[in-house]
Amino acid sequence: MFKGDFIENLPKIYGTYTGGFLLFVILMAILEQMGVGADAIGILFVAFTVFIYAAIGWLSRTMEVGAYYVAGRQVPTVFNGMATAADWMSGASFVAMAGGIYFGGHGYLAFVVGWTGGYILVASLMAPYLRKFGCYTVPDFIGTRYGGKVSRFCAVVILVVASFTYVTAQINATGTIAARALQIPFEVGVWFGLLGILLCSMLGGMRAVTWTQVAQYIVLIIAYLVPVFWMSNKQGFGLIPQLVYGDAVSRITELEQLHGLGTLEAVSGAAGGLKALTVPYAAAGEGALASWKFVTLVLCMMAGTASLPHILMRYFTTPSVKAARQSVAWSLFFIFLLYSTAPALATFVKLQILDPTLATSLIGKTITEVNALEWVQKWSNVGFLQIIDANGDGVLQLNEFFMRGDIVVLATPEIAGLPYVISGLVAAGGMAAAMSTADGLLLAIANALSHDLYYKIIDPNAETRKRLLVARALLLAIGAAGAFVASLKLTSILGAVAWAFDFACSGLLFPIVLGIWWKRANRQGAIAGMIGGFVAGTWYLYMVRFAGMDPWIGIDHLRFGIIGMPVSLVCMIVVSLMTPEPDAEIQAMVDDTRVPSGKTVIEAQTAK
Amino acid sequence: MNEADNRLMHWKSTKRLMIITLSLWVFFSFVVHWFAGALNAFSFMGFPLGFYMAAQGSEVAFVIIIFWFARTQHKIDQQYGFAEEE
Asked: What secondary structure does DSSP assign to A449-489, as a single string?
């Protein structure tokens, strides 16, 4: 089935798969009508989808190096776009983004802008050239373009730090979702999540991850869009939610004044992680500092997008340079579908909670009324929601209502009164989002260690079989390490995710970009750029986050790439200019990278 | 035109396209959002404009720019004979 005409049959295969998944959802809805409990439906949703991904992983098993590292370079553009979108959209995007917008309003939208616009950098500066280069991993590009083991090693270290920071957050998310859906303790859920992730990636490497990610994208996008469309139509907001929430945004600004946002005193005593609304929704922060904070966050997230190896390596799998370019465009389109929906969802949930003319509203009602609502009880019981009647007047005020951001996505079906089957669907979607990102990240780390550290640096004579065994052993070990760290619950999900972007752009952005766009860039410069940027960024993160230093002009721990990137750029340029230019062979290599036609640079090199 | 000149011209066109693309990118990523407060005075489809650009406007622009870029770069590659054979 996975040979020969498999690629031609892809639309048919995934069409059937999508149909099958929709049938499964309908079957679950029927079971719900027949009286099957909500818990059982949740378990079926998560277990069934994870089983399908594992089956795809098993069918895609391989012992060929090209298939293991770059899926045989035959993934069509649109499918690679879907796989990248799943690779990209993490558990945080799926579960936490709408909640972040709900609480943070305009300021938080910097993440939405940053996590989409970065693809323009990927398409125009990076992906097509790296595809032409023909490398297996990002450090493979650095090591070949600049030469020498030290440059390769630096790239491996930065890749591992950035990706590992990110992967623990993803394993954490799979654990949270699995724990809730399957009714098992979080610590067990983490290991269950890891098992699913490894089943998808271990046997087939990039090939298996590609085809499971496409399957996961289909599940996650259905799971995100269906509840929002349904809610929008059921509550009478409009047919297409993304186009009709403008008036709701304006209405929220009125309601904020009505409920006294900004004039109420902060109420203390809420459990950790729970927040009350304090920030105006639509208004942009005033003054240059607020604008500065917005654009610096956007820049860090975009530059990080263009430097994160698990994203860049997806474009190594396309059949051609042209396909790599188009595939970046499709990735952004598929990501856009979800990211343009998140603000609509946040807006509608907020309106439903704030607007006293709607039946769903909470603020301004009596506490007894609110506490009688089923969804309020359910989420209070699991510690996601809390009501504190601080002034004892028996009426719920804006500053007395606390919740976790995740609720916005997870409880939408219940707030809007949709059937439970939709909640099960949302859990499956969150699981797909977290698993697909974790897969890509684990593979990026394991591939860099097995290909660049083991094969290229430690044992260049290792035979194929041994290389692939090492790759798998590393995957297992890193996954276990990630699950162990996740089970310690060290940072909140989003803090860690933003850090990964800052680490990546501090150390890798300029060595990759200048490797293509500046022929004069040499080994010494690249090493200085990687070490300088990475050390400066990490130092700043440490000082601001842990050593109590005051952030410079609003550059907090989420934005430390703003410190790392310029240091990296300056180090790289100065050191390159102070040392001899690269030899003619390297310069010819750069010239070859810049034109799409012909053999890949690595092929041409090994043919000599 | 000899091979070296051809490569040079191809790279020149490629660079020009990159600069245009990134200028548009800078505008929609940074310039627009720097003035979000002022833009909020205007209304678009019921949205305050500054909020709209962050929630949807910039993203729509990015999608359009990136597909346009992919098409244009391919045309450049074809023009100079560097496009891949299908």
From this structure: IIIIIIIIII-TT--HHHHHHHHHHHHHHHHHHHHHHHHT-
